Amino acid sequence: MSQVCNWLTVFSCMRGTPKYKLQQQIHPGRPGHFDAVIVWKGKENKKSNSGGLAYDVILKPAAGDLPRPSSPPKDKGLTHEDIVRKLQEAEERRLSMEAEKLAPIAKMRERAQEAIERSQQENEEFSRATQEKLRRSMEVNKENRDAQIQALQTRLREHLLKVEETCRKSEEMTKELEERIKQNLEQKSENRQAQIDAMVQKLKEH
Fold first, then answer.
1. Is 193 within 8 Å of 156 (Cβ atoms)?
2. Contact 133, 153 (CB under 8 A)
3. Which residues contact 72 (CB under 8 A, 6 or more apart)?
4. CA distance linking residue 55 with residue 37, whole number of Å
5. Contacts with 134 (C-beta within 8 Å, 6 or more apart), sequence order
6. Which has the closest alpha carbon to 102: 90, 91, 94?
7. Out of 26, 33, 76, 165, which could bridge 62 as a Cys pair, Cβ 3.0 to 4.6 Å?
8. Span 12-60, pLDDT tens digits
9. What is the DSSP letter of 30?
């Protein structure tokens, strides 16, 4: 603004005494501040000073108050509720990670159960097919009925033994998976409780 005032002073000297007296219009809310608009003109018909320039200066009230820079938000310290909330969120994240780790074990258990059910279904289908085959065979050839029955019974016994062995192994695998899951959950629970106790102890010390 001071530079604009200097320009006005220089231009006033170059032009000479202005025809009309300029009056500054001061903004009531901002003393000493105003906006200047300079309108340049060409040569006039009347005689002017050599080397002089013609211009009009229009003063208008200054623009509205400039926006004040907003102060940065104050950083609040962590409260006891914030610490407890963060601990709970961390606990939830740990539980989610544990669930993701236990998901494969649960899937293995589900597959084992499906294998048992599939084996039982196959056994039932085989038994029905064998009985139907036995019935037809008895009707076709009564002379060889005893031999055929004995052969079929032998096959049935062998198949039942295989099914029982499969079921036994499946049950053992299921029990082993359940024991592993139980131990894993107990270990995780103990570690989690120890971490919570340690954090609570640190909070009490502070």
1. no
2. no
3. none
4. 10
5. 148, 149, 152
6. 94
7. 33
8. 544 444 444 444 444 455 555 555 555 555 544 444 455 555 655 555 5
9. B
What H or E segment, with its residue span, contains residue 54? strand 54-61
Number of residues that make up the chain: 206
Tens digit of each residue's pLDDT (9 = 90 or more) over 131-141: 888 888 777 77
Whether the CB-CB separation of 192 and 94 falls below 8 Å is answered with: yes
CA distances from 11 to 4, 6, 37, 39, 66 (A): 11, 9, 13, 12, 30
Alpha helices in 36-144 (DSSP H): 80-140
Largest CA distance in the chain: 150
- What is the predicted pLDDT for the residue at 47? 47
Domain-by-domain residue ranges, the chain?
2-61, 80-132+167-205
What gap in Å lies between CA 92 and CA 184, rounded to an integer?
Answer: 17
* 8 Å CB contact between 34 and 59: yes
Q: What is the pLDDT of residue 54?
A: 60
> Tokens for 156?
């049935």
Instruction: State the Cα–Cα distance between residues 192 and 91, nearest whole angstrom.
Output: 8
* Distance, CA of 11 to CA of 15 (rounded, Å): 6
28 secondary structure, DSSP code: T
User: pLDDT at position 191, please?
Assistant: 85
Query: Which residues in the chain land under pLDDT 50?
Result: 1-2, 4, 10-11, 13-27, 43-48
Predicted local confidence at residue 26, as pLDDT:
46
